[in-house]
Amino acid sequence: MDRSLAPDHLATLVGDFPRTPAYRGLRKALEELIGDGRIPLGTRLPSERAVTRVLGVSRNTVTRAYADLVAAGFATARQGAGTYAAVPLDRRRAHDHALHALGTAASTEGVIDLNCAAGAATPGVAAAYERAMAALPAYLASDGYLPSGLPALRALIAASYVRRGLPTAPEQIVITSGALSAIAIIARALSRPGDRIMIESPVYSNAIEALRLGGGRLVSAPMADPLGDEGWDLAAIEATLRQTSPRAAYLIPDFQNPTGFLMRDGQRARYAAALRATRTTAIIDETLQSTCLSGDPMPAPFAAHATDAFTIGSASKLCWGGLRVGWIRAPRSAVDRIIAARVQMDLGSSLFDQLVVAEMLEADGALATRRTQLRQRRDALAQALHEHLPGWCFRLPDGGLTLWVKMPHGSATQLAADVERKGVYLAPGPVFSVEGGADTWLRIPYAKPEEQLVQAVRIIADAWSESARDTGHRRNATRRLIA
Ligand SMILES: Cc1ncc(COP(=O)(O)O)c(C=O)c1O
Question: Nearest C-alpha to atom 7 of ligand 1 is from which residue?
Answer without folding.
Answer: 179
